[in-house]
Structure formats: structure tokens, C-alpha cells
Amino acid sequence: MTIETEEIRLEPCEPGALTPDELRTLFLFEKLTDEQLRWLADHGCTMRVPGGGLVVREGDPAESFFVLLTGTIALTRRVGADDVETTRTEQRGVYMGATQAYLRDDGVPRKYQASMRALSDSEFFTVSAADFGRLMREWFPMAIHLLEGLALGIASSQAAIGERQRLAALGALSAGLMHELNNPAAAAARATGALRQRVAAMRMKLGKLAAGKVAPDRLTALLELQEEVIERAAKAPVLTAMQTADLEDELGDWMEEHNITGGWDVAPVFAQGGIDTECLSQIEARLASAELLDQAIHWIGYALETEQLMTDIEDATGRVSSLVSAAKQYSHLDRAAHQWIDVHGGLDSTLVMLGHKIGEGVRVVKDYDRTLPQVPAHPAELNQVWTNLIDNAVHAMKGQGTLTIRTYREDDTVVVSVADDGPGMPAEVRKRVFEPFFTTKPVGEGTGLGLDISYRIVVNGHGGDIQVSSEPGNTRFLVRLPITEPASV
Q: Which of 263, 278, 434, 444 has its CA at 20 to 30 Å from residue 338's CA atom?
């Protein structure tokens, strides 16, 4: 049975069960006067809820204000088709329910903002929403004016800034994706144009070979040589830039000695394919004709270059495909809201999406433990966390340094570490990094909501933990995610 359809069955409320002195032991009421405590004792009551019982349901009219006396409770919020646990506590005196009953009546019904369940036999002190709202307005009028202004101001600013941040993030990611897509697309277009020219040249060379009245057996040998050289190039080891340059010089000298027309222009093509002078000598021996050798070298060169261009096109289009796949995985448009995931997929797709921001000056080190178990999570939300942490790290390093992303297991959690070797954070900054609207970035570059959102996603949304340690040359954010679902009741 889901929370949406579960029936709430509460034991009758017992009035007058708490004395004023007992109410004073609750931190919420400890500064009230004797008269105010007596009023609370007369208007409130105690309620007992058995373990597993639903106390309030998100979306129902907010009719009561609850203060926990004993037991353990859990608060959940509805996200899509899932109930996400945001808080679990057994702290005496915590409160929940009609917490905004004191706000002025704006015609909008007050509803519970979350569902509350008693995980063990629990006892609450309760006051009706009407009584709670009245006592707040009458006892603390100035505070209520301030709270109303603060609540409205925060709601308005969060809505405006949150919308702007989402649009800015979408624009930045879109611009970055277009930038990343442009490079392989342009490379494919260039390679296609060059390929068209080489195929045309091959047709012309074939015509010249035929016009030269080459014996059929020689022509067959030439075609066999072409296939052998292409196969040899496919298996050739990858050379360094220095090795390739040296090979070009050797091939150029060989072609000049054998009077190959434009040999120095053809040599780089053979060097790129890993073809050495020994292979050219074998071609010469197989053909046994100086005139045919010149045409054969050019013919085979065209074939090699054609293969290299087709490989370039394949690599470029493969890059486009991988970028689209990464963008799809990053946004999780085709995924359920909550599922079991491998954290490495989200980390890799985030690195791809932020590739334009990371730039060439930052070296990315990935130290992954691929044996880690999957974790229950909302993947799109976690990708937002990875985006914030990586973006902040790159900003701290000012585009130069080493970004290290490490994953490992610690007890019953999967740990994701995002570290940079930037200048570090002062102690006073480190204490405030998770505060809403706190930022060290210049005006216009940061809203101060990124790490606050990340904290709420990890801690409240996933039951995990996020911590930061920092010293010059080593700033590290540790995200811990439980490998098991929260216990059901």
C-alpha cells in the first residue's frame, strides 16, 4: 500500500498530559513565560502512534503542529512515482506539520509539505493549526512580520534565481555540446571532401595504367600488392611524431633514388600508414619495372590515403555518436526517476558534457573501482551533483591543474571523491560552502545554490553524506551514497 492510499489511524489525543514544567524541557518552548506554557498545556494534547504508522500525509490539509517527545520518525517527499526520504530523526523536540500556520491568509490552503511516519512507537505533543497560528501572531507579532517578509522574499528570489540558473546551465551545456559536436562534424566534412578528390585521382590513375598497356598479370600483381599494403598498414604499430618524421625522411630518400615523381609528397602518406622502405623494395621486386613502379607507388598511395580518410570519417562520426549518447545518458530522458545505477556512467557522461569547460589545461585522472556495486539513486539528480563539483573544481584551478575523480567502497557506502590541486579554501569559506546563496565567485558567475542543491540531493534525497576537506594543492569533496535502499516499514 502506498502513502497516497494508506489510511491514517491515530490513537485519540490525550489533553492535559503535559504540565508547563514538562513543556519547558522542550527547546522550542524553553523561553516561554509560565502563563504561555499554561496556555499551551491547556490547548495542546499528547498523541501516541505505533511503529510503522503514518502520522501525516503530504498534500493533506495542515491541521496540526507536532512536536516529537519519544520515538523515531521519517519524513518523505513525493518525487514522481517515488517517496524519497528527506529526514530521519529521534531527536526530542523536533517539530513538523502546520509550521506555516502563522502566515497571513492569502487564500491558498495550507497543506503538509511532507509525509511523516513513525518508525518506532512514538509520542507527540500536538497543537491545532488554528491555535498555533493564533499564539504565534499574538505572542510574537514583530517576529511574524519579519518571518512573513523573509518567507516571501526567499520564495521569490529562489524561484527567480533557480529558473535563471537552470536556463544558464542549459545554455552552457548546449553551447558546450555544440562546440564538442562541431569538431568531429567538421573533421568528417573535411575528410569527405578529401576522399572525393582521392577517389577521382584513383580513377584517373587507373585510366593511365590501362592506357599504358600493362600486361594483365602485372595489373593483377599490382592489385594484389595494393591489398597487401593496405592490410599491412592496418596492422602497423602506432608511431610517435618523431618516429613518423624519421620514416618520412627514409621513404623520401628511397623514392628520390628510384625517381618516383613527387616522392616527397607521397612519402608522408606511406609513413602515416607505417609502411617502411623494406616494403617499398618488395613492391619494386614484385613489379620488376621502373616505369610501372612510379605509377604503382602513386596508385598504392591513393589507396592508403583513401583508407586513412575513411578511418578519419569513422572516428569523427563515432565521436558524434558517443557525444549524443553521453548527452542522452546525462539527461536520462529515457530513464525512470529512481533506479539502481553504476555511478561511473554518470561521472563519465558529465566529464564529456563539461569537456569544453575542462579544457586542455586540466589533466583528468580517473581512479575508478569498477567492482563497486550499484546504488539506488535518481541518476539525473546525481549528475547535477557531479556537474556542480567538477565545475567548481575547474573554476578553482583557473583552467590549469589536475582533476582527480576516485571511487571506492567504504563500509556500506559507495564513495565518489572529486579533488583538485588548486589553491584550496580558507577555513571560514570551507565552513559555509553548503549554505544557500554563499559563493566566492564574482557577481554574475555564481548563485551560491550549486553546493546547497548538491547537499540536499545527496543528504536529503539519497540518505547519503557530502563532506569537504581543503588545503593548498588538495581540495577534496567526498560524496557517500548508501548501497542499500532505506529500510521499509
A: 434
Q: Kindly state whether residues 185 and 114 are assigned to the same domain.
A: no
**CA nearest 415: which of 330, 482, 485?**
482
User: Domain for residue 391, yes or no?
Assistant: yes
* Whole-number Å distance between alpha carbons of 469 and 456: 19
Same domain for 468 and 343? yes
Residue among 36, 39, 45 nearest 18 (CA)? 45
Q: Would you say residue 166 lies in a domain?
A: no
Q: Does residue 20 sit in the same domain as residue 109?
A: yes
Quick check: 97 and 125 in contact, CB under 8 A?
no
Q: In terms of pLDDT, which residue wins out, 82 or 397? A: 397
Which distant-in-sequence residues (6+ apart) come within 8 Å of 469 by Cβ? 475, 476, 478
Residue 108: which CATH number? 2.60.120.10
Distance of alpha carbon 251 from alpha carbon 228, whole angstroms:
18
Q: Which three cell numbers stand for residue 448?
A: 551560491
Last residue of some domain: 265, 290, 320?
Answer: 320
Tell me the C-alpha to C-alpha distance, in Å, between residue 367 and each of 23, 341, 417.
54, 18, 9
Q: Is residue 77 within 8 Å of residue 4, measured between CB atoms?
A: no
Q: Is residue 488 part of a domain?
A: no
Q: Residue 326 falls within a domain, yes or no? A: no
* Residue 173, pLDDT above cutoff 70: no
Alpha-carbon gap, residue 49 to 56, rounded angstroms: 11
What is the rounded end-to-end Cα distance, in angstroms, of the chain? 11
Confidence of residue 486 (pLDDT cuts 50, 70, 90): low
Cell of 74: 521519517
pLDDT, tens digit, 9 for 90 and up, residues 447-464: 445 677 788 888 877 888
For residue 14, the cross-strand partners are 46
Where in the sequence is the domain holding 58, given as residue range(s)?
A: 14-139
Q: How far apart are CA 30 and CA 44, in angstroms?
A: 16
